[in-house]
Write a structure and sequence with these properties.
This protein is α+β, with helices and mostly antiparallel strands. The protein contains 2 helices and 7 strands.
Length: 148
């Protein structure tokens, strides 16, 4: 199955968008599946930063651990899951529009299965296709309503 790839344009600079996304503890503000986030490494977000999200999933709450694998402010960040039979892999790319006044945010996301998770990953990816556009709309609303 191909990754979910969704883009949205936001009336904020790439620097503002990246800084907001870089604060892993704030992801629950626009992703309603996140109940809480625990950042496990000290210091600013960078390659190697590890965090665990507690997420509401169809089978109950689950802890999803992940690691930042790319970090190129304000253009790109990527991550990969580190636990469980179904693990997320994805990236966020931020493009400057209108001389930096606006940004295009593109998320590429895929759940990859290991062992019995290979049976579950396609179901999770179908659900992600439904949820990601709503999450991006909330991200846009959150950023555009915040003071500059």
């Amino acid at each position: 199955m191909a990754p979910v790839v969704e883009s949205i344009e936001i009336s904020r600079s790439p620097e503002d968008v990246f800084a907001y996304l870089d604060d892993l503890s704030r992801h629950g503000e626009w992703d309603d599946q996140i109940v809480g986030t625990r950042v496990e490494t000290e210091g600013p977000t960078r390659v190697g930063t590890r965090a665990t999200d507690t997420r509401k999933l169809p089978f109950g709450e689950q802890e999803i651990a992940y690691e930042i694998t790319e970090h190129d402010p304000p253009r790109r960040s990527a991550f990969r899951g580190t636990n469980g039979a179904v693990r997320p892999v994805g990236s966020v790319t931020i493009e400057s529009l209108d001389d930096g006044a606006r940004s295009r945010v593109t998320l590429s996301f895929e759940l990859q299965g290991r062992g019995y998770g290979k049976l579950l990953a396609p179901l999770g990816n179908r659900e992600a296709r439904k949820h990601i556009p709503n999450q991006q709309a909330k991200l846009k609303e959150r950023l555009e309503s915040a003071p500059t």
